[in-house]
């Protein structure tokens, strides 16, 4: 198996929210520890599923600090730090490093659309030169259906070439297997993480590095089973069954708007109310939708 | 003519940038004063043309403070304050109010796409309730080709109904005349500002409130001529000629990427180098493009 700077099962963790719409620090830390106990190698909190860009810089920093203060090891965290303005991406990344976190998932600046590869290269370069810390390992974040920004295979190559010790992976949430295969072929040793659960096993078999996905909020144990057993012929039946279970949970989470549904499912599973709330502009499921979800959840494998 | 809470010619001001990519405070203040001297009723700085979302909150606040300290009247400024996270939009809006600025242009939260009208209503409501200052007048900002967020006619109506003294206008940068007409028809007295120069005169004739556009960085006098004379039959020829001049300048600014080209044209017109620079991910025109632009600029009416 290829050796990657970062590999494994990372949970795109959701964020529990208090009645006043502030993040619920205590429950977030509890959830992060639970994800690790259930088998995740790490927690990619403060991503798209985590509603990161709906929180202020101060709120984001406070969340990281409180999770670490609650006892979650910094080296198990891989937060999102990419925002629209370069100085703030630098600020969030340096803050994470100051807490002992050395891995981040980094969106490109996402306000302007149709920007050039040169402009994106320049943006990432200025961020990494601004952070100026050789501990840092960056997972680029490709989610054009939300960010509106495409990271081309060529751009990724230019960044790897310019920052070989830092730009070590990509979270590929476009859901385009061909694009992931092109990245794997072009840049051996570069860690490609699918952002969609059904692609975890197919990509692991072609040299993927693991996954950074949302269904791990619910059934991390099955994702770990797939990761640990994917190259072991004797485990094939168990691995296929785990991937099938993952897909079933993911299909239900996609039957309503994905982020509110994932959160509602976590809330139902653990009896925790704070998962029903979302920061606007996202909207939580209504009581009737949650009532309809409950029996479907109970029938899942 | 209808009476609006806000009306007139507002410049979507560009931002001059130093060699280290920091904003050039002195030249920004000089430019704002120049725009007012040339005929603008106000300066809508820190919008899309102003690269606002490429600057940190701290940089944005410092720009406003320095423009006012340089002597530009606060009541002539209408900055953008809408960012992705509600608490930061509240923070920027309260900061503007603290400087005596009572008019802002406000983007909706723009990270998530495909969000519902309910989610956007909730977001704007929480922002306005969080600002909690009855001096505030908000111009909503509709620029779906950049923000990725559509503000429907129905949503605008719900916001006007809920915040009648505050939600007083919209900057309609989608460039869709039919949408502007629908807004004018549905909400008499609500100030509709086209974000595209060629639509200024057509919309003024149907009850528009003025414009918030980029060509005013170059020829504000002509925009003022159109605004002042649009209802005066005796001025028709002068007004048509001014609108034709505006359109010619705008066509040239759109011949390359618009924001870099507007900035390059301002730089050529005034012999100021700082306009050639942009914050990544935007990229300034190259020397050869600027060389090609110069004779075209000199031939404009």
From TrEMBL, chains A, B:
GO terms for molecular function: 4-hydroxy-tetrahydrodipicolinate synthase activity. CDD domains: DHDPS-like. Pfam families: DHDPS. The active site is at residues 141, 171. Its EC number is 4.3.3.7. Belongs to the DapA family. This is 4-hydroxy-tetrahydrodipicolinate synthase. It comes from Aminobacter aganoensis.
